[in-house]
Amino acid sequence: MLFNSIEGISCRPITGALYALPRVFIPERAVDEAAKCGMSPDAFYCFQLLEDTGICVVPGSGFGQRPGTYHFRITILPQLDVIEELVARFRVFHMKFLKHWK
Fold first, then answer.
1. In angstroms, rounded to a whole number, what is the distance separating the alpha carbons of residues 45 and 55?
2. How do residues 50-83 score in pLDDT, each as one tens digit?
3. In Å, what is the CA distance from 90 to each residue of 18, 32, 83?
4. Which CA distances in Å does 70 have to 80, 84, 96?
5. Stretch 32-49: mean pLDDT, rounded?
6. Which residues lie below 8 Å from residue 75, measured CB to CB, with a gap of 6+?
7. 97: number of Cβ within 10 Å
8. CB-based contact 1:16 (threshold 8 Å)
9. C-alpha–C-alpha distance, residues 52 and 87, integer Å
10. C-alpha–C-alpha distance, residues 61 and 34, integer Å
11. Burial of residue 37, with CB atoms counted within 10 A of its CB: 0-12 exposed, 13-18 middle, 19 or more buried
12. In whole angstroms, what separates CA 63 from the centre of its chain?
């Protein structure tokens, strides 16, 4: 899976689903900043992703994730070449996010 090749991201294999729900590591400084903004950490991450890249995902907190874990839901219907390009853009964002908030 393409997401598993990115530091701080893990995703179970997708078999016949329309969505993926990758788990994302969010540094403690970003968790603290999210709290200051009155947001869940995963929502903070998702809004940053949208603002920086135009990639729209849904925070995992709306799907009953375990406390202390963070996820996002993404639609995986596009063709593989489109998904690969999206994941490349996502990778750049995620690495910058980690570097900024570590």
1. 11
2. 999 999 999 999 888 888 999 999 988 878 898 8
3. 19, 22, 10
4. 25, 23, 18
5. 98
6. 18, 19
7. 19
8. no
9. 14
10. 13
11. exposed
12. 14
Please state the φ and ψ torsions of residue 75, each to the nearest 5 degrees: -75, 135
Instruction: Transcribe the chain into DSSP letters.
Output: --GGGSTTEE-PPPSS-SEE--EE---HHHHHHHHHTT--HHHHHHHHHHHHH----EEGGGGTPPTT--BEEEE--S-HHHHHHHHHHHHHHHHHHHHHH-
For residue 69 the two structure tokens come to 């874990």
Rounded Cα distance, 98 and 102, in Å: 6
- Cα–Cα distance measured from residue 34 to residue 82, given in angstroms and rounded to the nearest whole number: 30
Q: What's the rounded Cα separation, in Å, for the pair 15 and 94? A: 25
As given in the structure block, the two tokens for residue 10 are 């893990």
Amino acid 77: pLDDT: 84
In degrees, rounded to 5, the angle at the alpha carbon of residue 9 between the alpha carbons of residues 7 and 13 is: 125
